[in-house]
Amino acid sequence: MRPFLTRLWAARRAIGVYAFLLGAGAIAGEMLLDFAIPEMRPMNEPLIHRIVMGALLVFVLAAAIPFVPGAEIGFALLLIFGGKASPIVYAGMVCALLLSYCVGRFVPLPPLSSLARWLGLTRVAGFTGELADTPAEARGALVSSRLSGRFGRTVLRNRYVVLVVLLNTPGNSVLGGGGGLAFTAGVSGLYRFWPYLLCVLIAVAPIPLAFVLLGR
Question: Is 169 helix (H, G, I), strand (E, B) or coil?
């Protein structure tokens, strides 16, 4: 028990930063939700179009930021405007996850390794540094070599399916939400662009499709 508490105390900086990200993401999500969803009042059609486009922009940016529950904004837009907003919300969420993924693809790994070391996550820092020195096509083998047991290797082999499941898992904000998962997918180098895009197109579809089919 004592070694565990010692490690826990050593990682206090990482725990503090993680708690801050969760709290800040929740607060930012609420603020962006209030900003994006207009107060329903009589207004002309051009004004409605401007408000919807502004809400869509906020939705895409919010959903792309790790730990910000931007998907709530998309769900609120569906509740307010119904199934007719489904194509816009669907396209917005796909764009958000692609944006976060692409940012992750171009983020250099050495600074992330330094950040992990500053947070006291020495193993993560070492592995991230090793990942940075490994060509993208060989990273899957590197990760596989670090995973112990059949379960880990199965997860790696079916990583696209796992990502679809995680993107649709309630409470995934503890893993960074959709934006955080997409960013991690990009940083890792384990997800190729076109299979990742297909994965996102499938993962985002259920809720907008349900609104269309139910005629809400």
Answer: coil
Q: Which of 123, 100, 117 is nearest to 188 (CA)?
A: 100
Tell me how many domains the chain contains: 1
- Whether 214 has a pLDDT exceeding 60, the answer reads yes
> Considering the entire predicted model, what is its pTM?
0.77
Burial class (CB in 10 A: 0-12, 13-18, 19+), 91: middle
Q: Which residues lie closer than 8 Å to 19 by C-beta, 6 or more apart?
A: none
96: tokens are: 């958000």
Domain hosting residue 168, numbered range = 1-216
Looking at residue 39, what DSSP letter applies?
A: P
Q: 177 and 67 in contact (C-beta within 8 Å)?
A: yes
Helices (H), the chain: 2-10, 12-36, 45-64, 71-81, 86-106, 109-118, 122-132, 139-146, 149-157, 159-167, 177-188, 193-204, 206-214
How confident is the model over 34-83, as pLDDT tens digits?
A: 555 555 454 445 655 666 676 677 778 777 877 777 777 777 777 777 77
The whole-angstrom separation of Cα 60 and Cα 94 is 9
In which residue are the tokens 């139910």 written?
214
